């Protein structure tokens, strides 16, 4: 059986045609699914015979809710979902004044090995399919009973290590026949797989690209990010400029501040020199401490000083608003705790 969420409209039209049905049935099925995850048997404008065929070939792969946590101030919800094969993934819904935003996972686990990140500890189990990415949004919308208008691919996994599935997901999420979420409302975050950033730029989409830089030099970057052995910061800056030229979109550089590793005034100066005159923005994240390592978050004073230096060099900087810290909302922490059988406080 095939997860119907893995198909785009054109593929379902072709399926209808080769099964002797009118192509327009495909659009009807899409309307039912993407409006409210309607089961095949309840699609009442579709003849019984067609519903029967759909049930024989397809299923609607919605994950099962295993655990749910709501932050004290109610603006962040974290879900642990179980996929059809029993694998666990997590996603986070954040409520903002301007709408609901979801952070979804693109892989079960991750093989990038970043030291500060809990998602990568057990390695990469498998890629998440386009339909399983869509299903995280569909399920979350159902749970909060509200529309989700912004999507960030910043959960577990490296999106550009699962490139084709992510591209297909983007097509369906963006399509007016699918979830109809505008490209400008989508952010994709990568640890910096240079050739894939180039390939992505060539699609010329209006999606926000975020790059996890986390260091002002290769020497510092290799200490926490193994991918730095493969691609240098110079290559990342080059390909970022290429992305900006192609798309005219501002890039976000993520920078997790770790005490004593990358948070000095000199580091801020070096970072400023790297990013000089680029159409970009730096998002500072005081690192979320995880149990599995010793990395400590920078002091508030150091974070403020780091921001001040960047801004003095005309680099737009924000400090990530921390949401959901009380519910282990940082990447991969919920899945880890569940696998280890720990209770969250
Ligand atoms: N693989 C992608 C997307 C997933 S991680 C990437 O690397 O960008 C989303 C962001 O959270 C990345 O910037 C990642 O480096 C950061 N991150 C992961 N663990 C963190 C932690 N413990 N504290 C702060 N940021 C973290």
Automatic annotation (TrEMBL):
Q: Where does the UniProt entry say this protein principally localizes?
A: cytoplasm
* UniProt keywords, alphabetically: 4Fe-4S, Cytoplasm, Disulfide bond, Iron, Iron-sulfur, Metal-binding, Methyltransferase, rRNA processing, S-adenosyl-L-methionine, Transferase, tRNA processing
Annotated cofactor note: Binds 1 [4Fe-4S] cluster. The cluster is coordinated with 3 cysteines and an exchangeable S-adenosyl-L-methionine.
Under CDD domains, the record lists: Radical_SAM (cd01335)
Q: Which residues form the active site?
A: 90 (proton acceptor), 331 (s-methylcysteine intermediate)
> One of this protein's Pfam families, by short name?
Radical_SAM
Q: Where does S-adenosyl-L-methionine bind?
A: 157-158, 189, 212-214, 288
The EC number(s) this enzyme carries? 2.1.1.192
Q: Write down the superkingdom of origin.
A: Bacteria
The record ties this protein, via PROSITE patterns, to: RADICAL_SAM
Q: Which biological process, per GO, is one annotated for this protein?
A: tRNA methylation
| Record flagged with keyword Chloroplast | no
Misc. comment: Reaction proceeds by a ping-pong mechanism involving intermediate methylation of a conserved cysteine residue.
* Its biological purpose: Specifically methylates position 2 of adenine 2503 in 23S rRNA and position 2 of adenine 37 in tRNAs.
Record protein name field: Probable dual-specificity RNA methyltransferase RlmN
Name its species: Clostridium estertheticum
**What lineage is this protein's organism placed in?**
Bacteria, Bacillati, Bacillota, Clostridia, Eubacteriales
**Which gene is annotated as encoding this protein in its UniProt record?**
rlmN
């Amino acid at each position: 059986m095939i997860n119907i969420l893995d198909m785009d409209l054109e593929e379902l039209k072709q399926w209808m045609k080769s099964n002797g049905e009118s192509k327009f049935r495909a659009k009807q099925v899409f309307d039912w699914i993407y409006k409210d995850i309607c089961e095949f048997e309840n699609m009442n404008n579709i003849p019984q015979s067609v519903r029967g065929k759909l049930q024989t070939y397809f299923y609607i792969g919605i994950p099962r809710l295993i655990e749910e946590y709501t932050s004290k101030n109610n603006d962040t919800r974290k879900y642990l979902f179980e996929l059809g094969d029993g694998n666990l993934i997590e996603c986070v819904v954040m409520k903002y004044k301007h709408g609901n935003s979801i952070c979804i996972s693109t892989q079960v686990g991750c093989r990038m090995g970043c030291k500060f990140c809990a998602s990568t500890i057990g390695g990469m189990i498998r890629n998440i399919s386009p339909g399983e990415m869509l299903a995280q949004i569909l399920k979350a919308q159902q749970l909060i009973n509200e529309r989700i208008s912004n999507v960030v691919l910043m959960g577990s996994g490296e999106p550009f290590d699962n490139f084709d599935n992510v591209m297909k997901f983007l097509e369906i999420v963006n399509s007016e026949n699918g979830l109809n979420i505008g490209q400008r409302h989508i952010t994709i975050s990568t640890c910096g797989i240079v050739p894939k950033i180039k390939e992505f730029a060539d699609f010329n989409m209006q999606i926000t690209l975020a790059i996890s830089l986390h260091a002002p030099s290769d020497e510092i970057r290799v200490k926490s990010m193994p991918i730095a052995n493969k691609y240098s910061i110079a290559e990342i800056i080059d390909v970022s400029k290429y992305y900006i030229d192609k798309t005219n979109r501002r890039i976000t550089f993520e920078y997790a501040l770790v005490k004593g590793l990358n948070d000095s005034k000199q580091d801020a100066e070096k970072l400023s020199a790297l990013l000089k005159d680029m159409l970009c923005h730096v998002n500072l994240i005081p690192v979320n401490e995880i149990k599995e390592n010793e990395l400590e978050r920078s002091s508030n004073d150091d974070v403020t000083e780091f921001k001040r230096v960047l801004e003095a060099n005309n680099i737009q900087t924000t400090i990530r608003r921390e949401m959901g810290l009380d519910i282990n909302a940082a990447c991969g922490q919920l899945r880890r705790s569940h696998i280890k059988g720990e209770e969250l406080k």
